[in-house]
Amino acid sequence: MGIVFPPTFTFGSATASYQIEGAAAEGGRGPSIWDTYSHTPGATEFGDTGDVACDHYHRWREDVQHLVDLGVDAYRLSIAWPRVQPGGSGPLNPEGVAFYREVLTALNEAGIKPYVTLYHWDLPQELEDAGGWPVRETALAFEGYARAMARELGDLVHTWTTLNEPWCSAYLGYASGVHAPGRTEPAAAMAAVHHLNLAHGLAARAIREELGAEARVSVTLNVHQFYAASDSPEDADAVRQMDGIANRAFTGPMLDGAYPEDLVADLAEVTDFAFVAEGDLEVIHQPLVALGLNYYSTTYVRRAVEGMSVSDNAGHRASTTSPWVGVTTVEILPPEGPLTAMGWNQEPRGLTDQLLEFSARYPGLPLMVTENGAAFEDEVSPDGAVHDPKRVAYLQDHIAAVAAAMEQGADVQGYFAWSLLDNFEWAWGYARRFGLIRVDYETLERTWKDSARWYARLVATRELPEVDAVG
C-alpha cells in the first residue's frame, strides 16, 4: 500500500473572486484596485483584465457541480469586498450578499465545507483613493466589513480566513508596484504590512464577537522557504534577514504578539514603526483554528557585496523596484532545475521542511496547505482532451511531501489544490494556467484536465495515485 491519508484529512480546491467571477460592473458591484490596475496600459500581460474572467458570477452552479464531481471535502473561495460593500464602507449591497448566500448554500447542501477568505486582494477603489492599506482607516473599514459578513453569512461558513498572502498585498502592491495598486513606496509598504496585520486581528475579533468564541478563524500566508547558498555565516544571516522581511513581519505579530527585534533593526532606515499604536499588537495576536500556508517553490540566497541591489526572481512582471523592502545586500539566486511556466523551481522537500518548521515553532497550531499547484503549458489533444502530465507529477510530489511531514509529526489537517479553474493570473493575465479544469476564454467552456481526474481519484480513495492514474 502506498501513501494513505486519514478520513479526517481535508482535500479541497481553491479560487479567488477577482480571478474567476467577472461581472465587474454587474449586480451592484463597485470598482476594486484590480479593476483600476488591470485597465492601466502596460500593467498586465496583453492588457488582460478581470472584467469577464471565468464568468463564475453567472456560471457558479456549473462550477459547484464540478466540485461535487471532484468529490472534494472543502472549497476555498473569497468574497469580493466591493461586490458586497461598494466603496468599502456604508450600506451593504443586497444583490452581492445574496450571490454569496446562494453559492454557500449550494456548497453546504452538497456537503462541501466553505472556507471563506475575506480579502484576496480586491480592495474597494474608494479606500485606495483615501490612502489604501498604508493608512489605519483601511484596517478599521475591514473590521466593519468582516463584522457585516459574519452577520450575513456566518451560518453558512465553515472556516473564515481573514487575509490571503498579505506579503503580496503590501510588498507587490506598494513596494515593487507589480500588483495593484501599483505603487512603489517602500515606507508605505511597511505601513501596509502593519495595517494588514491589524486588519487580521480586528476581523478575527469581530467575527468571534458576532458568532461566538467557537467561530473558526484562520489566516493564509505565503511563507517563503529560504535556503542559504552555502554554509557560511554570511549566507545564513542573509536567510535570517530575508525571513524577517518576508515571513516574520507577519508571523511575529500574528503568532507571537510582537515584531521581531532584528526586523525592526534591519528596517531602521526605512521606517521607525511609528504606525504601531498602543494596543495594536494585542489585537493582532488572535487565536487561530489553523494556519494556512501557500507553497509553490523555494528561494536560495547569499550575502552580496555591500550596496548591491537585491535581485528578484519571484516570477513577477519586471519592475525597477524590488519588493524586498530594506534588503540591499542579499542576492537571490536564479532558480534551477525544471521550472514551471511561472519560472518557479520545483522542490517538494521545501514544503516538508516548512510544515515541520512551523509545527515545531508553534506546537498546538494545526496547519493547512491552502494553496499548492503549478502553471504549465497545457497539452490539448485534437479531440479536446487536456493532458497535463507535468502538473500531475507536481501535485503528486508535493502531496507526498505533505504526507512526509505528517509522518514526522507535523499536524497538517488539509490540502487545497490551486486552482479549481484556469483564471486571471494577476499581472500575467490569462497567459498562465494553474487550473485542474481548463477554461476556454473565448467560449468559457470548462474541460477537465488529466490532473482533475487524478485529483478526484486521490480524494475518493485517500491513497496517493501513481502519476499515470488519470482514468
CATH class identity = Alpha Beta
Terminal CA distance:
20 Å
Q: Output the radius of gyration.
A: 21 Å
> How many domains, in number, for the residues?
1
Catalytic activity: Hydrolysis of terminal, non-reducing beta-D-glucosyl residues with release of beta-D-glucose
Active site: 165, 371
GO cellular component, one term: cytosol
GO molecular function: beta-glucosidase activity
Describe the fold and architecture:
By secondary structure, this protein is of the alpha/beta class. It has one domain: TIM Barrel. The protein is 39% helix and 15% strand. It has helices spanning 17-20, 33-38, 56-70, 81-84, 94-109, 125-129, 136-153, 166-174, 186-211, 233-256, 261-266, 280-284, 349-361, 389-407, 450-461; strands spanning 10-14, 74-78, 113-119, 159-164, 217-221, 225-228, 290-294, 298-303, 330-332, 367-372, 379-380, 386-387, 412-418, 437-439, 446-448. An eight-stranded parallel beta barrel has the order 1-2-3-4-5-7-10-13, surrounded by four helices. Strands 6-8-9 form a three-stranded mixed β-sheet. The protein has a two-stranded antiparallel sheet with strand order 11-12. Helix 14 (389-407) packs parallel to helix 15 (450-461). The chain is globular and about 60 Å long. The active site is at 165 (proton donor), 371 (nucleophile). Pfam families: Glyco_hydro_1. Keywords: Carbohydrate metabolism, Cellulose degradation, Glycosidase, Hydrolase, Polysaccharide degradation.
